[in-house]
């Protein structure tokens, strides 16, 4: 790749703020991250910001990518890949680990490193481990670069479903019954671990949902109707995370609510409802992204129910010390709202519920992206 074609550093001193959109990553949600990045790139106001798209390949290389959102979409039931968008098979982008220097550098074997200019804010649209779990956020803290979304602690809590539930419980939020199987338990005494789950099922009933403790987009989740399917479900979950969460089935309506940080604090969107998908046992990856099962926005709730779920969504945002944005997922049961989880970097594809909820609340997708960038620029780096 010739360095002549690389983005040039904006001229000083009247340059526009530069936003680096970072996407892809090493998790099983790589493809959905690329789709989200395409939507964000399309929405950013280019009259206000310069944009630098940076993709992280599945093996962890930071690649300079084409700024071509139309190539970052699901086609023929297949998600895109950073490798297809990379400008070079070998070149890499480096962020400085120096709070006094925000200069991004591109290097390629056999070539002199090329400065790409300073980055004012990073918009990380990675999902899952190595991106949404506090690891990337820690790197950006070391670099002294402001970024969209929650800090290290909130990102880690939001990714680990066990500790997320522990935090919610400590703040008085109602969660569903669950049991955790740690990797050492399954490795050392599989019979005892299996009995732990069977005893849990005896108390709460079948079916159970077996899922990776630290993954998203419904990847690696299995609905288990009896003991015969348990071992295969554990194996599938452990393909994505060695720690496994087993949850009792909650009977109720699936309700989601978005939270966005404005200058005067976090506010909740109108909620949405996820109806049971016709061709799927539950709202799984295929239903969410491939078959595009539509949600109902706004959710058909009473005014009192709407106000309650909005309050609970903001409470969850505050309980986990979140920043920027969150999608909070609930079940509306006979006993009221039960929080299932939060997503600190929810899917923001054109069909994702988070932007749809804000659209219904009066905030367009470009306005939503603008609010997120403004929130990041308002915050200083350091301990968050």
UniProtKB/TrEMBL annotation:
Pathway(s): Cell wall biogenesis; peptidoglycan biosynthesis
Single Gene Ontology MF annotation: ligase activity
Main location: cytoplasm
ATP-grasp domain boundaries: 165-374
Catalyzed reaction equations: 2 D-alanine + ATP = D-alanyl-D-alanine + ADP + phosphate + H(+)
Cofactor (UniProt): Mg(2+); Mn(2+)
Pfam families membership: Dala_Dala_lig_C, Dala_Dala_lig_N
Top-rank EC class of the record's enzyme: ligase
Keywords of the record: ATP-binding, Cell shape, Cell wall biogenesis/degradation, Cytoplasm, Ligase, Magnesium, Manganese, Metal-binding, Nucleotide-binding, Peptidoglycan synthesis
InterPro entries membership: ATP-grasp (IPR011761), ATP_grasp_subdomain_1 (IPR013815), D-Ala_lig_Van_CS (IPR000291), D_ala_D_ala (IPR005905), Dala_Dala_lig_C (IPR011095), Dala_Dala_lig_N (IPR011127), PreATP-grasp_dom_sf (IPR016185)
Family: Belongs to the D-alanine--D-alanine ligase family.
PANTHER family: D-ALANINE--D-ALANINE LIGASE (PTHR23132), D-ALANINE--D-ALANINE LIGASE A (PTHR23132:SF25)
Protein's job: Cell wall formation.
Entry protein name: D-alanine--D-alanine ligase
């Amino acid at each position: 790749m010739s360095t002549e074609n690389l983005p040039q550093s904006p001229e000083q001193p009247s340059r526009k703020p530069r936003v680096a959109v970072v996407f892809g990553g090493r998790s099983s949600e790589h493809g959905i991250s690329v789709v989200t990045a395409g939507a964000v790139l399309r929405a950013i106001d280019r009259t206000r910001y310069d944009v630098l798209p940076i993709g992280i390949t599945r093996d962890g290389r930071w690649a300079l990518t084409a700024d071509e959102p139309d190539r970052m979409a699901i086609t023929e039931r297949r998600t895109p890949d950073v490798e297809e968008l990379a400008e070079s098979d070998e070149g890499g982008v480096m962020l400085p680990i120096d709070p006094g220097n925000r200069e991004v550098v591109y290097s390629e074997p056999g070539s002199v490193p090329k400065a790409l200019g300073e980055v004012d804010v990073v918009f990380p649209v990675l999902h899952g481990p190595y991106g949404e779990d506090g690891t990337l956020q820690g790197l950006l803290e070391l670099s002294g670069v402001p970024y969209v979304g929650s800090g290290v602690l909130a990102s880690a809590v939001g990714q680990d479903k066990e500790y997320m539930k522990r935090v919610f419980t400590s703040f008085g939020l109602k969660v569903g019954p669950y049991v955790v199987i740690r990797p050492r338990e399954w490795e050392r005494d599989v019979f005892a671990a299996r009995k732990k789950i069977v005893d849990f099922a005896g108390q709460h009933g079948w079916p159970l949902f077996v899922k990776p403790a630290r993954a998203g987009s419904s990847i690696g989740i299995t609905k288990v109707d009896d003991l015969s399917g348990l071992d295969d479900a554990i194996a599938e979950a452990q393909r994505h995370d060695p720690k496994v969460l087993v949850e009792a089935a909650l009977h109720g309506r699936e309700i989601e609510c978005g939270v966005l940080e404005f200058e005067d604090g976090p506010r909740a969107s109108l909620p949405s409802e996820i109806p049971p998908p016709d061709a799927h046992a539950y709202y799984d990856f295929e239903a969410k992204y491939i078959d595009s099962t539509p949600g109902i926005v706004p959710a058909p709730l009473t005014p009192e129910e709407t106000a309650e779920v909005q309050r609970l969504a903001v409470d969850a945002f505050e309980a986990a010390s979140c920043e920027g944005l969150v999608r909070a997922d609930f079940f509306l049961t006979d006993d009221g709202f039960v929080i299932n989880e939060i997503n600190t970097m929810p899917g923001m594809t054109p069909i994702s519920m988070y932007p749809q909820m804000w659209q219904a609340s009066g905030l367009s997708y470009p306005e939503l992206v603008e609010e997120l960038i403004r929130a990041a620029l308002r915050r200083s780096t350091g301990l968050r």
